[in-house]
Design brief:
387 residues, alpha/beta, Aspartate Aminotransferase, domain 1, Aspartate Aminotransferase, domain 2, seven-stranded mixed β-sheet, three-stranded antiparallel β-sheet, 12 strands, globular, binds 4'-deoxy-4'-aminopyridoxal-5'-phosphate, binds glutamine, pyridoxal phosphate, transferase, kynurenine-oxoglutarate transaminase activity, PyrdxlP-dep_Trfase_small, PyrdxlP-dep_Trfase
Amino acid sequence: MNLPKKHSAADTTIFTVMSALAQQYNAINLSQGFPDFPIDAQLGNYLSEAAQNGWNQYAPMPGLPMLRNAVAKNFQQRHGIDINPDTEITITPGATYAIYTAFTAILQPGDEVIVLEPAYDSYIPNIEMNGGKVVPVALKAPTFEVDWDLVKAAITAKTKAIIVNTPHNPTGATWNKEDWDALAEIVRNTDIIILSDEVYEQLVYDGKPHYSVLQHPELRERSFALYSFGKVFHNTGWKIGYCIAPPAFTQAFRKLHQFVAFSINTPAQYALAAYLENGIQEPVNIMLQSKRDYFLGLMKETPFTILQPAGGSYFQLASYENISDLPDTEFAQWLTKEYGVATIPVSAFYSNRKDDKLIRFCFAKKEETLSSAVEKLAEIGTFQPNP
Ligand code: PMP
Ligand code: GLN
């Protein structure tokens, strides 16, 4: 039977490919972005408490009110932003779903969407699955800042949306206020909608703040902001996120959501709400920054080159140009098989598979995981099995 091809991406996402390869070769998995350290026991206690106390039936379609209220309160406390939990927040089964649903709500066939590359690998298939046309714009290596002139030049009468991501996967780059101002200037007097992927919002390092699209009143009116609890509470497998958008956008979003997912895992929503309400979590950026610094310190003993330390996210890019001139996908496979460390080749984040000889390491791991991995990487050069 001939089934239609819905998008142009690879058959299997690089995250699945590399995690499977890591398992096959018993390699340390620094590829797919997930922590290997435990969640706070209290969060787990709230989850069992919810199941035991009868929170086991469908939650309301937009999300448990207690969770939406807790999210609104949390934004007010952290950023001083007022968000209406009833009309502006929808709980979703992860941010990936929220991004897809936002695209589905706004796109019609032929609409163009500007994607800043390298980009998280679900954006382009999500746009194409909705009949949209991707217009890629390259970020400026090695800092991966936005070239606003290029963005401006990419806008046409068909531009429906721009998707942005800060802190950025895979580069770790973060936006400052001037970036948002530049974006606002470009979209002023247009109907262009912004999708702002802020899943790593609480993972910004070196004392810098995260600037959210929600803090920019002019942009907020035309934006979907997308979040994931997985990155904040180290529970990526819970797959719960949320979408914050103005009431009219939220209505359009929920019109789809009610017939695709309808509602989200109730006990997990209860647990997240209780955990947020009790405000017991330690700031996650302090812990992750120390992991980044530990990893960067260890990496000095290897032949990899760090272009610049990640300003945020779970990820650190490194160049292997001193080691090999293999294409990055082959290099990542070779590293997994021969040295037992799995990473992600950065070409997977470009629609044209641009290969800058960079790989992405996930440092959201226990220190012992990072040190065992880097111990193996440090052997490169002393022992090279046919690179
Ligand atoms: N956006 C970015 C930039 C990501 O790195 C990820 C990875 N998890 C997601 C969205 C998806 O988040 P979730 O697991 O909540 O779907
Ligand atoms: N966001 C994670 C990453 O970039 C993984 C998400 C996924 O596996 N789809 O590694």
